[in-house]
Amino acid sequence: MRILLLLLKIVLFLLMLGFAFKNTDSVVVHYFPGAQWQAPLVLVLLVFFGIGIAAGVTASLGIVVRQRREILRLKRGAASAAAVAESV
After folding, report:
1. Is the pTM for the entire model greater than 0.85?
2. Which domain holds residue 7?
């Protein structure tokens, strides 16, 4: 299973590397009126992919923090209930 996973990773890497080599043409990204950015297509895709990942992590961060607080609260409640049960 590990060898199959390693082969899959190598094939995926080679496909992405081939995509990067084939898409080195410059593209222009237009922003607000007058502002533009000219860079290779692969770089533009990588930058916006990274921005998407950062936005996703930031959006889920609040949920993760809230769940950790809830878990801590429940652990404290379970510990205090166990202490009460032992004292009775």
Report:
1. no
2. 2-87
